[in-house]
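Reading a protein record of the kind used here takes little practice once its layout is understood. An example of such a record is reproduced below.
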Amino acid sequence: MFDELFGLENAHEDIKGVDAELLTTIRDEMMMGLVRGLLEEHNVPYMLKERGAGSAMRLMTGFSMYGTDVFVPTESIEFARDLIEGLVTNTADVPEEETVEEAPKEMPAEEPVVPVVPVEAASAVTEVEPEPQPEPEPEPYGIEIVTVVWPENRNNMKRLYRYDPDGHKRSVGDLVMVPTRDVHSGKEIVREAEVVKANHRVAPEEITFRLKKIYSVGGGETFVLNKEEA
């Protein structure tokens, strides 16, 4: 009916003999861009033909009320129709209908609007994945000790002694006062020693005697421990 109204029933006379079929007629520039994009993306050749005085009208107004015909090779017509199915409708003979926007309905004042949260959205809000917790550090293995040497053995480093650091950090070269037994008098004394190996750990089976604790830090005079101090 649209073609007959505007005298376009013979709009395709000049392409007779061409192995092509009409895919659709488009009167909207945005829709034209979508259709051309689909055809070009899938390598479907096409030909555009303005209907009636559409070319002159497009130059003056930017659009053509007569529409633009889109032709594709006959061998590709079915594939092209599948591509644009749902995107456009062949409107070669059907004028576009004017859409009337309905006025929004007013909500009754006495009925408050209560937002409804979809079940999926509600579950998505409540289901929060717990943050990964850091793995606890393993307990250090072995017994912590500090190795010292007597000043007279500093050069040969043959006689080394192990002591309990008593929870303190000692560094190599520190002078400390440690308890020991005097080989001549058999008394328990405290004398100066030098740290040759800072805090480190050894396997429990390597310790065959009770470790004595470092008495104090810093060099000093040798003295005898009282029985209470020992």
